[in-house]
Amino acid sequence: MARNKTHMNIVFIGHVDHGKSTTVGRLLFDSGNIPEQEMRKLKEKAEELGKGGFEFAFVMDNLKEERERGVTIDLAHKKFETPKFDFTIIDAPGHKDFVKNMITGASQADAGVLVVSANDGVQAQTKEHVFLSRTLGVGQLIIAINKMDMVQYDQKKFEDTKAQVTALLKSVGYKPDQIPFVPLASLLGENIVKKPTHMPWYSGPTLLEQLDLLKEPEKPTNLPLRLPIQDVYNITGIGVVPVGRVETGIMKVNDKVIVVPGREGKGVPGEVKTIEMHHEQMQQAEPGDNIGFNVRGIGKKDIARGDVLGHMDNPPTVASEFTAQIVVLNHPTVVTVGYTPVFHIHTAQVACQVISIEKKIDPATGAVKEEKPDFIKNGDAAIVKLKPVQPLVIERQKEIPQLARFAIRDSGATVAAGMCIDLVKKA
Known about the structure:
It is a single chain. With about 425 residues, the chain is α+β, with helices and mostly antiparallel strands. It folds into three domains: about 5-210, 3-Layer(aba) Sandwich (Rossmann fold); about 225-310, Translation factors (Elongation Factor Tu (Ef-tu), domain 3); about 320-425, Translation factors (Elongation Factor Tu (Ef-tu), domain 3). The protein is built from eight helices and 23 strands. The strands form four sheets. The chain has a six-stranded mixed beta sheet with strand order 2-3-1-4-5-6, with helices on both faces. Strands 7-8-14-11-10-15 form a six-stranded antiparallel beta barrel. It starts with 5 loop residues before the first strand and ends with a strand.
């Protein structure tokens, strides 16, 4: 399998109904990545459901329930090629309850397209998604100002929306002068792949051209090997086959590895026998590769989802407590010491208790607002100390950022997101 083009994961984010799915559908269709007859079928289906004009959104919303509700629920993965990149599009849902998907989506994205509608401007979820993208390390953004047709392609409306979004980007620490803004009318295919016919005032790139101007992500091959386990299968004739995505480093056949914490919490050592991707044997795997592998010395009961594999000489870090920078997004009341929500980090889900709130900080600048506050609430950013209730693999942001970021969930909602800035290693 030749890896000629650079692979990029791109997430489409933004408020519900601002046209993310339609933008993605248009992009795929107009760039020739969806056959005409499939599009015709979707158009008929859309009209039948009384949702004429939704056919482009249907490309991504392929779950039946979503088609009927006209809302994106699950993360859909679609591949498409540009002259420079092989993209996997992660369509992140806009709905509140689906923020969890947004988090798993954004944590794996090399870049993001934030879709903001020109007639609505910045909405609550626009803010939330920008916050999350920043906290979860989506380094590059493109801002797509959509529904220009609804505002008569007015340049002033575009500039107004751009100013709103610019203020939002600044507030969370993105540098707006490095972020491109592209006006679109996705439903009509204006400025997605084809040059616009209604916006003589805009001379910049189309959305497709802008995607090719993204910078290639650097693969963290120089960092220590970290592979969070997603599932463990028992396959007849092969034995135990864990699967997961290499986050950092390189894994080779015959490597001496260890999976931690493992069932006993002491780590499970072994030796890599085989690595497979897309049903092909490989000698090595690198960051971004989703692989299945077989390790001599590891049984089905020894390891589970949430454990992390690394090299024997540089095992993943198990923390007995850690310090994190978090942003509170959606808590019904306030967060105080003693609060013990579930942390979603890499593939692990572990409850962690807030043991102290060190300080409240300005989310954009990191400047301290208040030392040792009694509580934090929605919109606050803070430095907190946390204690996992069971062994947890987490790394410092400055050392291995891919394993430092997490989301905090409580009774079905995402309460906060953050990253680990320091930790105490488990003895």
